[in-house]
Write a structure and sequence with these properties.
Structural class: alpha/beta
CATH topology of the largest domain: TIM Barrel
Largest sheet: 8 strands, mixed
Number of helices: 10
Strand content: 15-25%
Number of domains: 2
CATH class of the largest domain: Alpha Beta
Order of helices and strands: EEHEHEHEHHEHEHEHEHHEE
Bound molecules: iron/sulfur cluster
Strand order of the largest sheet: 1-2-3-4-5-6-7-8
Distance between the termini: 54 Å
Helix content: 25-40%
Radius of gyration: 20 Å
CATH superfamily of the largest domain: Aldolase class I
Shape: globular
Number of strands: 11
Length: about 300
């Protein structure tokens, strides 16, 4: 189908991925196989397949124009008003973008629903950064929080994520969005953590609702997200919360090491938590090779060795 609406948007500066050119694989209306309580789009009936799709040639034209106009794009982000892996020409579009993207990386933001399907996982293998959502571990939670389409089986989705993580050679990120009184209980968190350990992604981005949700649900506090992150030993976690206030606290060398032993901190965490002197101590620990700095899919982490 032809289209009059813009198929790309931005570039926008994304904190986690740099300068991003968005590509909307469902520009006319929401087409999704989930109906998440926290969705920032309107609530809607789930669907198994896209009913309206734009041909790849229209996307390629717009992406080429945007790349000419904005030469410095860090990532081309495949997203949608809905779920981008439902786009029926995904494999062809990925091949074509890969042939024109030059130094930009290709990123997809997916709800993981179709990752268990071989045609989807083999298409995603050709993407530089794959970010998959995993809000739940149990069927009950998937039904309640993500309201998944009846054509989907949450156990197959989880197995699909685990299998994909074993064959994918590029950057894999998981995202977990927590909603108050839905997936923030210890049992669900424990089970999500077990899956995360099996997937062993480069990093896990955890967050909560920060825009008006489709349904009447509530976000978690920053403290509660930190408590959850602290339960996930050995995982590189970034926390996104709109109330990330600057604490400017003073930490000794030992306190910094204790913090980093609990979990690696991101550059943003350091900027928000540490006062100037504590930052100097951290720099010293880096110079002494006690703490190392690593870049995980565009996010800087400080980790103890
Ligand atoms: S998967 Fe994304 S687009 Fe679909 S309902 Fe959930 S939040 Fe909305």
């Amino acid at each position: 189908m032809e289209n009059n609406k813009p198929l790309t948007f931005g570039p926008i500066n994304s904190r986690r991925f740099g300068r991003s050119l968005g590509v909307d694989l469902s520009p006319n209306s929401k087409q999704c196989n989930f109906d998440c309580l926290y969705c920032e789009l309107t609530k809607s009936k789930t669907m198994e397949k896209q009913t309206i799709s734009i041909l790849p040639k229209y996307y390629i034209k717009e992406i080429k124009d945007a790349l000419n106009k904005y030469p410095h794009i860090d990532v081309i982000t495949l997203t949608a008003n809905g779920e981008p892996t439902m786009y029926p020409y995904l494999d062809e579009l990925i091949d074509e973008i890969n042939s024109i993207k030059k130094n930009s990386k290709l990123l997809i933001l997916s709800n993981s629903s179709l990752i268990g399907k071989s045609e989807i996982s083999s298409a995603l293998l050709k993407i530089d950064i794959v970010k998959l959502s995993l809000d739940c571990a149990t069927k009950k939670c998937f039904k309640k929080l993500d309201k998944i389409d009846k054509s989907l089986n949450s156990d197959e989705m989880i197995q699909g994520i685990i299998h994909f993580s074993k064959i994918f050679k590029n950057e894999l990120i998981l995202e977990v969005l927590f909603v108050k009184d839905i997936n923030d209980n210890n049992e669900e968190i424990g089970k999500i953590y077990e899956i995360i350990k099996k997937v062993n992604p480069l990093r896990v981005d955890i967050g909560t609702i920060d825009r008006p949700p489709a349904y009447d649900v509530k976000p978690l506090s920053k403290e509660k997200l930190e408590e959850i992150a602290n339960k996930m030993d050995g995982i590189n976690i970034t926390i996104a919360h709109k109330n990330s206030t600057k604490e400017n606290a003073q930490y000794s060398k030992l306190e910094i090491l204790n913090l980093l032993n609990k979990r690696p901190l991101t550059n943003d965490d350091i900027l928000n938590l540490f006062d100037e002197n504590s930052k100097l101590i951290l720099d010293q620990l880096v110079n002494e090779n006690i703490v190392k700095i690593i870049n995980l899919a565009g996010v800087i982490f400080y980790k103890t060795l």
